[in-house]
Amino acid sequence: MTLLACTVGMQAQYDLLSAKKGVVKNGYDFWVYTPDDYYYSQENTPLIIFLHGASRCGRDMNRCLRYGPVDAVKMGREIPALIVTPQNPGGAWNPKKLDNVLEWMKQNYEFDANRVYVIGMSLGGYGTMDFAGTYPDKIAAAIALCGGCSLKDFSGLGRLPMWIVHGTGDKAVSVRESQRVVEGLKQQCSTDKLRWNWMKGASHGALARFFYTGKTYDWLFQHSLADPKRRVNTTIDITQSDLTNAYKDIVKRVDQLELELDNEQ
User: Fold this and answer.
1) Residue 240: which pLDDT band, with cuts at 50, 70 and 90?
2) CA 83 to CA 117: how far, in whole Å?
3) 11 burial via Cβ count (<10 Å: 0-12, 13-18, 19+)
4) Are 29 and 65 in contact (CB under 8 A)?
């Protein structure tokens, strides 16, 4: 284990969530969450990149922690991974800037580079597909919630396990945005690594529940770049019942979060 790895691991015991501001040239400011057992499993630890929606854009980094994987950890969900939460100051997510953040993480943290995952919602759903489609050989698997894709060429998305989910009752981002991507990959005969779900009647905010159910992370962790066939896991399903129970005893907070995200543009 390198001296850097030891230093990072020891610091992680005292600083599980740290803000990184101005450390990546042509990148984003971001948070890094280190799991409790990181000191003991550094080189085997997966990395998750979470991309927030438009309502969390800005310069106040606390805004991008108000939902997502780190929030799920705060509420008791065990996620045995490094979690990188960039903040987008505004506009579309830039794949190159996200890649620069990922490369900085490789230089400064020990983790399993074969198990890097991306998950995002709304604007972050677009960012997830744009990033994964641009760098498919760096991402083990991705989940894009109620988003779409800005890329003109979808072929990169057909090269990695990708799960696209959208609610048919979404009034902020039409389900047609995700369907357009799926139809494009069908036309290219590139759907062998693709999963998609159109959740009947689900609103925009309802899909935030994906960040809080353990099955989301179970599905991501089933994939690795070490798998030469890049096979997509089809045995783990996330049902409406799973989403309903994702938050368990915090119903009031869930309702408030979903109403807020439903108004996201």
Assistant:
1) confident
2) 10
3) middle
4) no
The pLDDT assigned to 58 comes to 95
pLDDT score of 142: 98
What tokens appear for 55 in the block? 């309502």
Do 102 and 35 meet the contact criterion of CB atoms below 8 Å apart?
Answer: no
Q: Measuring CA to CA, which residue among 229, 70, 14, 246 is closest to residue 140? A: 229
Six token digits for residue 93: 């997510």
Lookup: tokens for 233: 């896991």
Token pair 């060429």 is found at 153
- CB-CB contact of 206 with 243 (8 Å): yes
Q: Which residues lie closer than 8 Å to 137 by C-beta, 6 or more apart?
A: 159, 225
pLDDT digits (tens, 9 = 90+) for 123-156: 999 999 999 999 999 999 999 999 999 999 999 9
Strands 162-167 and 29-33: unpaired
Residue 55 half-sphere exposure, CB side, CA atoms within 13 Å?
Answer: 17
Q: Are strands 116-121 and 47-51 parallel, antiparallel or unpaired?
A: parallel
Q: Cβ distance 64 to 124 under 8 Å?
A: no
What global pTM score does this model have? Answer: 0.89
pLDDT(251) > 70: no
**What ranges in 15-94 are assigned the alpha helix state H?**
38-41, 69-74
Query: Which amino acid is located at 204 in the chain?
Result: H
Instruction: Note the pLDDT tens digit of each residue in 209-223.
Output: 999 999 999 999 999
